[in-house]
Amino acid sequence: MSDLIAAVATARAASAIGILRLSGPGACEAVGRVFTPASGKPLSAYPDRRLVYGSLKDSQGRIIDWCMATVSHGPHSYTGEDTAELQCHGGAALLAAGLESLFAAGARQAGPGEFTKRAFLNGRMDLSQAEAVIDLIEADTAELAANAAGQLGGAIRARAEAIHDQLIDILAHFHAVLDYPDEDIDPFQLEDYLHTLRSAQAQLQRLHDSFRRGRIARSGLATVLLGQPNVGKSSLLNALAGYDRAIVTAVPGTTRDTVEERVRVGGTLLRLIDTAGLRQTADEVEALGVARTESAAQEAELALCILDLSRPRSEEDERAMQLARKAPHCLIIGNKCDLPRRQVPPAGAICLCAKTGEGVQDLQQAITALVGEVDAPWDGAVLTNARQADAVARAIDALHRAEEALGEGLTPDAVLTDVEAAIDALGQLTGRSLREEVVSRIFSRFCVGK
Hints:
3 domains; Four Helix Bundle (Hemerythrin (Met), subunit A); 17% strand; Gyrase A, domain 2; seven-stranded mixed β-sheet; six-stranded mixed β-sheet; flat; Rossmann fold; 13 strands
């Protein structure tokens, strides 16, 4: 991290404003070589974080824009290093020429997420805060944005560090008694810390339990549409999506592969998966589609099994219902209620007409009642990251093992081995202890310039 990096920090498309960003040793001098304040004073004469109006030159010394510049000296900057930004007009050619000028002034192209990675490595933020940056960029709802903002403000770090410090106190007390037996230190009794272990488990369990809510908000609840061909699966997908997402024809077997669409029902985001109809077929392509249907059903959290009320119940219908009921949540839907009925829908089934929309609102209400999310604040305490959830789960497991070892009367050093494992897991949550390849993988998700 001893070199100077630069990048375009805004989208690579024409826009009103485009930002060029630098960080590293010599950032302020480099921007001073390509930017001249209109006042005639050097940029270095202005205080930190002051916007200064002036001209931007390309690598040949030609003025290519009149823009704003600002500098910020480390360690009180985003990255913890000397940084500078040029707020230009947002033409792609202009920004490319400005970036080339910065390269000529001694900078190199920044890699994906390198600015935020430097902020993490320089102690300006922990890893949960750094991951919140990409969550903010990728958030597609106000709730996810609010949650990411809370995490960027340190919501996860505060919870993790409070538990981390309590566990460190246990270890410190044990080693103090062990290393200084002649000092006037209270005797070490593991039983005195049983409440701490249980409280830490409970706090971490609440944090881990939030991951399902966060995962659904971010990726959607996997919801599979099941039924034999031509019962109206694609029509229902289109009705819930609000537009013609899937092809609908009177020919059975139109859908031969899974088709996905994200749909918000109430406060719950569904990842709807339309599938090939369940039936025996000699068509090799359709048979592959049926196999994918069964695979999607096994992985789904919600199954919507659709029956055609205008024709008698068949073996394929029974097979579809049997497969649907294996999912954690299941709803049976009787479609084509506008036609004469030739079967009685199962108890609790929702009758509708996907073609006209009749009864679709009843289905939406049933889905919300079945899997709707709790009305809790999005304050940063909702995990949306699988890596973080895994670290929390490992900390919980380690504390549970420590409590069990304590109950079995094992020696303090045996119990504290699991306490140390919990501390290590919490360290991986916040980035206190994490392998370099994992850090690199995390920041590879970022866009260049952030």
